[in-house]
């Protein structure tokens, strides 16, 4: 997986690495490696970051979802383009609107799904009798607390939800402020890599649009995954090796050791998404009956399978975590053209290097890796955000009034 830097691997990510390398060589000798990295990344504008869905020859336009699209249409668009999120264009904005009025936020596949599941808890008031249908499906669970009742429903519930007029008529703009709805915090092309890296880590942004002020539109979208892929392509550069050869424990990883949120293999899978919503996390391990060893991983991204393919669970009275993982594997085996999904449990040890972790995560295209001890007992988790947060640090007063012009979080936001 590791390749030497240089002309043998010419790509946009490597070009960024070479640019950092050139800046690294001219930094003041008294600066620490951490200060050198900060200085290098502050000197490179985000216009240099490789475009999403691009090749050397072709740049594809950023896909947008109109604010008046139905949830069903938005899910279809995201599924067709194999995307997890997209900017929402305000259809009511005038033709000459500024970029900040042109968009109302970023909507995620997971956000739509979790919002719909949340509606099942509060009895949706649809015009097609969905509330009655849902109550009939869940009548045997009426004595249970609402979250537990919602978590125990099976495939019939999901098919009812996705075939309802409620799902087909609710508009994307109606769910602004829901779980994992991102405010429209955009970068300009002149903003620095350091700003971008800090926003994706310390400030917990999941993706960052880069705006073309002249065209008043989004020119690129930078994600945590794209940053980690860039780092993987920079293995071998002096600046990378000075940081990447450090062991996890030297960088204070994993964070919150031995405080991992877990899900038993026999728990209802919807409990996983309720826990993610409650704890504001993006994934968790599925553990065996001992509670210490991981047998699988469920990510917030996996909630898409509840909407995109509810037929997978038809006949199941209760969809357990074990059934869910098995159904995803069967579905992906039958749909070879579906987006790749790592189905195993990615693990590491505290004495592995950050470079090892980056290469594993990038190779498997997954967002988290679990730290285990010598007996494979879970100790913690490392996410893409954790990695980026150890690459740079925020200088005192760095952002100044940067956030003053940002569109505020929608009311009741759970980002």
TrEMBL record:
Pfam families hit by this protein: CBS (PF00571)
Keyword field contains Chloroplast: no
SMART domains on file: CBS (SM00116)
Domain of life: Eukaryota
Keyword terms of this UniProt record: CBS domain, Kinase, Repeat, Transferase
One MF term in the entry's GO annotations: kinase activity
CDD domains for the chain: CBS_pair_SF
Keyword Endoplasmic reticulum: no
Start and end residues of each CBS domain: 255-314, 338-399
Listed SUPFAM superfamilies: CBS-domain pair (SSF54631)
InterPro entries: AMPK_gamma/SDS23_families, CBS_dom, CBS_dom_sf
Protein name per its UniProtKB record: SNF1-related protein kinase regulatory subunit gamma-1
Taxonomic lineage from the root: Eukaryota, Viridiplantae, Streptophyta, Embryophyta, Tracheophyta
